[in-house]
Structure formats: structure tokens, C-alpha cells
Model the fold of this input.
Amino acid sequence: MSDIINILPDSVANQIAAGEVVDRPASAVKELLENALDAGATKIQLIVKDAGRTLIQVIDNGCGMSDSDARLCFERHATSKIHKADDLFAIHTMGFRGEALASIAAIAQVEMKSKLHDSELGTHILIEGSDVKEQTPCACPNGTSIAVKNLFFNVPARRNFLKRDSIELSHIEEIFKRVALINYNTDYSLNSNGRLLYDLRAGNFAERISQIFGNSYRERLCPVDEQTDLANIRGYVSKPEFARKSRGEQYLFVNHRFIKHPALSAAIEKAYTDVIPDHYYPTYFIHIDIDPARIDINIHPTKTEVKFVDEHALFAILRAATKKAIGQFSLATELQFNPIEEVDFPPAPKGYIPTQPRVHYNPDYNPFESTRQSKPSSASASPRPAADPKWKSFFDLDTPATPAPSDTQTSLDMAVPTIPTLADSPSESSPCLQLAASHIVSVLPSGLLIVDQQAAHERILYERLMNQSKAPHAQQLLFPVNCQFSPADADIFNELIPELKGYGFEIGSIGQTTFVVSATPPDIKESELQTLFDQILVEYKGAMIQKFNDRTQCLCRSMSRQMAVKPGTILQQSEMQQIIADLFCCQTPSVSPSGKKTMAILSPDQLIK
Ligand code: ADP
Ligand code: MG
Done:
């Protein structure tokens, strides 16, 4: 048999390597932004078209390249940043592998202009699929401008894997934020399809955070500053009351490089253990400054994963520094909510067969009757149309002794919702007690009912919002409230406005990124509008990335979460009864829209045991 092994041509090898470094426009953006930084630029412009599909251009005022470097930089393993293997342990630059430009040039059409500061003329070079098509001298500003056109033009398989533009653009934006956040001494701009999304001026870390995420972040964060022999830790962490149900902005940097490190992230989150409820997450922007010899960043081509020699010590320092920051600002005592305590049931003894709990209810209950108490407050809930009594599965309901009026009860499924007597006429009902300002306790004939007030209220509001007709009640605000977003968020918010109007919001815009809210649904507090919209945007963007396209569900989930009574809110007797009554009218009363249990019933047997 003849020889069958051959050496792959460079262009093919580069294309294969490109798969590791450049899997979507955002990864090319990352490499180009990092190169500009390494070149010492103080001003970096990023321009994209069609979410980077047709154009990614980075213009910098860095050191520029000579004619021959401009050609050489597109070769594999071509780097000015390391010379020998030992250099790997003293890396002070973002790049060092010398493969980014070679990879990008293998899968796109690249046009570059570059000029050294002390040269008269620059150089212009055109490359397509690793082939240098042209190189000529040219007049151009100091620094480098590199335009990557038609990414993946020769790799259709990869092109086909790209997601729709809004998703690819949000990946690019995320990369841009990661780089711009920690390199706050550099001017940055991002222009997408001719629109300026970010225009960031050099400043300090806090200024950069608020330039990117909005001024509201200033009051949400407290500073962290810890100098140790091992590392210096600096940055900002959120005050506990601004913790969120989703991991929103969590940025960890090591030596000015964004990294993902689950253990160190856990160290920060651990510092919040006693001050925020389970499943809430802090926001943080933390920079770890450490001797490069104590880390290994060469474990992954994209260099976002890093190994630390002293991981355990760093974990402890990071946790302590975060705890100190939270404590120093004595915020733990200003909490609006306490941690939600899970109701802990002792395990049933072996062989124990639980008996179905039973509940008495009033068959004449009419949920449309408006004579019931209804106290206006954030916890109040107005009567609403009947829902399936799905909660029946919780309680083995007695069949009513006197049948309900036949016109409303043709079958069980169409029955008027039946609710426990206690919710029916509060004056005669068992009273409710509030436990730790977070749980409502009441007595049912079948046992002790324990309701998580926040989870229950979330469920109630969620179903109400989901079932709401598109003729909502709106309350006009005496003083319209302004809300502000980053340019990119403002774009997404604009998309959501028609939907929000359906819920009673009246929203206009002043300029590109400021919106003015003149009416809201009744249960929304004006002071919480910005937080509500921020939460909606986080949830919506997360949903977009996961291809979860139900905008209505997304909005209702965020709104109900924001509007629900929080642990720590003292409830009136009537409010507690209303919550229980409303919960039992829900279609899925047992869990909150975010999957948390809303209630538990302890039978007399269980209580005795
Ligand atoms: P690496 O960054 O790992 O060295 P790259 O392929 O990204 O590898 O770049 C190769 C080389 O090209 C760099 O080492 C640098 O010398 C040069 N280079 C790339 N981009 C720029 C730029 N914007 N300005 C100046 N030099 C650059
Ligand atoms: Mg590089």
C-alpha cells in the first residue's frame, strides 16, 4: 500500500485551529479588542455590521505594526509577546499564543491598515482565507485598523450555526463589556449598524461601571479593597438588598482579564449566605491582582479559564473581603428582607401511611362578590374571575352537603372556586398569624397551614397578570418617573414597550436611552420601576439566549417577582386572609412561578408526632 499520510497545508491547519479560537463573531471581537489593548491603545473603537456577520472592525491608536510585522502577524504562532517557554509564567499581555489573527484570517476576508508612530507611511494588507492578496503602502493614522469581513465565508457549517442577530449582538456586547469594564483607563466605543451603542470615556472603575450599567448602580454597590501578600482584591459588590433571583452582572477579573472561575464566584456568593435569601445572587465586579507566576492562563485557547496555585487561600481571602465590605457598610442590618427559612418537616416514621388532609369550605362562596374586605396595599388582591380549583389535589375536599347552585356547577372542572372557610368570611374565620415576617400560619380543619407569603403572592400576581385582559387598569403617576438604560438595553426595552403597555404602563421616551413612565399597573411602586425594568431586561435577555421566546411569560414572571410582598413585610390580618383566599383560586397554587413551594400543611397526626 502506498503512503497515505500528508501534511495539511497551513490554510487548512489554520482553519481547524480557528474552530477553537473563533466560534462566533463575539470571539473574533474579543481577540481584536485584546490585541488593541496589548498594543497600548488609549482609544479603541469597535464597529460591527449585522452582529459581526458582515463586518467586525477594531480601530486603535496603539503602537501599530511595521510592513513586515503586518504580514507576519497573520502566520500561526506569530507573536511579539513571548519568546521562550519560561515567558509563559510572566504574562502581562492579554494575548501570547500567536494564533488569533492567523485563525481569523483563515475564515474571513481581512483588511488591515497599520502605522508605527514614527513612520511616515503605514501599510495596507488584504488577506482572504489565509492568502495575502495585496500589500501596499498607505497613508493612515497611527495605530491599527483591522476589518474582518464576511466571517466564516468559507466555512458554511459554522455560518449556519450562528444564531439570529439579536443573540449574536448580545454576545458581542457581553465581550465588549468584559473588556471595557476592567480597562477603564481606555476610551471605548461600540457602533452597531451605524448606531452608537456605547461611548465610554476613560475614568475609574466605578465610573466605568455606571457608564455601562447606568447610574443606579452607584447606590447598589459597596467597595471591596483588600491588600494581601498573595493578591490584591479590589472592586464592588452589591448591597444585599439588591440581590437578584438570577445571576445578573457577575464579573471576575484576574490581572485585567475576565475569567470564569466557579470556585471563586462561590467564595463571593458564600459571603452573602446569611444576608440574602436562598437562590438570590449578588452582583459583583471584582478584580484580583496577582503575581502572574501564581496563575496559569494557558489552559484554554480563549483564556477565560485560569488555574490558581493558591486557590484555597484565595477563596478565603475573597470571601472575607466581600464579607467585610458588606459588613463595613452595615448593610446587613438594613436588609429589606430576611433569609427565607425553609419549613423543615421531620421525616415520617417507617411504615407510616399519611392520611389525606381534609378541608371544609363554603360552597356558597362567590368570588365575584365585592363586599369582602379589600385593603389597598401592595399585598391586597382584588377578587377575580374563577379559576380551576386545582388546589383540590392538595386537600381531599368534602363534597358539599348542600350542592352549589346548579348554573355554576355543572361539573367539577367548571365549579365555582371553593376556598377554605377561613378565607371566606374573615370575621368568623380562624385568624392568621405571621411568622418571622415571612410566613403566614393558619388553621385548617385538616391541619396547620403554612404559607410562604412571597412565593404565594408571586403565584397570585403571576396568574392574574397572565390572565389579564388587554384592557388593564392603569394608575396615572402624579410625577412621571424617568428610567435609564444602556443604549443596547434601551433597544431591547423599546421592543418590549408595546407588551408593557398591555399591562397598564404608559411609557414614552426622551432621547435614546431615557424613558418616562407616566402610568403603571396599580400594584407597582414608583420607586421600584427602574429595578423592575432592569429585572425584566435581565430575564428577557437570558430567555433570548436560551431561545425561550414567550415574552408574556417572561414579563409576567419578572413583574410578579417584583410586585410580590417581600419577607420582612408585616401583613395585616385581612391581607393575610386575602393572600390565602387568592392563592387557593390559582391554577397552580402549590408553587411560585419560579418553582418555589408556596405552602405546606401539617396534619394533626404530624403535629402530634
Ligand atoms: P497574540 O496576541 O497571541 O500575540 P495574535 O494573532 O492576536 O497573537 O497577534 C499576533 C501579533 O500581531 C501580536 O503579537 C502583535 O505583535 C501583533 N498585533 C496584533 N494586533 C495588533 C494591533 N492591533 N496593534 C499592534 N500589533 C498588533
Ligand atoms: Mg492576540
Notes: Residues 31, 35-36, 38-39, 60, 62-65, 73, 78-81, 95-102, 144 surround adenosine-5'-diphosphate (ligand 1) (CB under 6 Å).
